[in-house]
Amino acid sequence: MPNCNSSTLPIVLFDMDGTLLDLSFDDFIWNQCLPERHAQAHQCTLQQSQETLSQFYQQHKHTLSWYSSKYWTAKVGVDVLKLQQEFQHKIQPRSGCFKLLQQLKELGYRCWLVTNADQPSLKLKLENIALRPYFEVMVSSQQLGYAKEDVGFWQSLQQLHSFDPTQVVLVDDTAQVLAGAKQFGIEQLITITQPSSLKPVRELSSLNYPAINHLVELLSFLPQSQVKDVDVKTA
């Protein structure tokens, strides 16, 4: 068995929603529940509500406001955080989530959680899914003042927690986030083929980055000596 020093391993940066957690929860909240509650609150039809919210979404997509429960509560007149709390039982991990995190922990990898979820939403999800023990660092874009799509996020993250962009692996389901990270200098970028179980698997040809579905597939992108260790332990 190779002699492995954790200091020589890349840091693995994980997105949360759509990567470690099933994006179906967020799809359900934003595309089904919120339009229904918005229609009730404003006494309009569901179709009118969907059209209004769709316009709002397009205006703010990939910005810090897009991920803010407080912003959307004020914007649409529905308590978005309360809505998430009401249906928190629907928050679920993606396939292989804990198996992968446990294997990485055993192999000595340092794992960081980097999410666009605002701090109240992050707190809610961590209360339902026990991710915390596997992560050395957990950062919300709200803390840094930039969405992950913005290179400013990665610059601020590096100032807060020093790291070498060439010595990290980022796993994220959003192309715009991966593009921002690439602009910053992160080269090892991996995406997800099916972020939400409510939507079909995305075609590999439509993705600009290496892609995985079951999270344990990530091991094949990490140093091969480490993968062999995992195979021996789990055989």
Automatic annotation (TrEMBL):
Pfam families: HAD_2. This is HAD family hydrolase. Keywords: Hydrolase. The keyword Nucleus does not apply. The keyword Lipid biosynthesis does not apply. GO terms for molecular function: hydrolase activity. It comes from Acinetobacter guerrae. The lineage of its organism: Bacteria, Pseudomonadati, Pseudomonadota, Gammaproteobacteria, Moraxellales. It comes from the Bacteria. Transmembrane segments: none annotated. NCBIfam families: HAD-SF-IA-v3 (TIGR01509).
